[in-house]
Input
Amino acid sequence: MHVKVLEEELSSTLNSLVCGFHQLLDLKDLNTGVHSTRLAEWGMRVGQELGIPEESLHDIEMAAVVHDIGKIGVPDAILNKNGPLTEDERALMNKHPEYGWGVLRLFPALSQTSLITLHHHESFDGNGYPGKLRGSEIPLGARIVTVIDSFDAMVSNRPYRKGLPTEEAKRRLVQSSGTQFDPAVVKCFLGIVDSELPAVFAAVSANSNLIF
Output
């Protein structure tokens, strides 16, 4: 009983910690915070469809929520810039996975979450960052977050551009399958996106930034 109580307390503490990080994201950028909430819903659905064990699903869910936490270290002038980033600005923006990993790795229970966060901008063909990992070298959780992150970013409105229609975003996922994205994850995600999109939308309180 004592061990069970300790486990429940640890789980509660971790959930509170992740919620705290999420609130920090909201303070930095409201769009980023809401975006992360949607990704948590997507990540769980894709992970379940792929048959990922429950304990690993929780890592993916938490990583989906906090994967952009490192953007707190990116200056607002870069994060909110309306135009294209310069080479130096892009280099600094591309540091945000490492910034996030640097914080999350300090918590032993978030070790897998930190690795997913670190590698969520890797590409399946090895041309991503920061580690230029390829294929199965990339943690599966990170491959999932990469796909759902990209899809959600494409269909969401931003101050500097209008979101894409769902069908166009799906087409781009297919087009980049095998290069930027894991083909198996893309296939799984596209298999559920039409039926799950309304459910995810409802789960995050009908945010008007998502286009159907």
About this structure: Residues 2-28 form the longest helix (27 residues). The chain has one domain: 30-203.
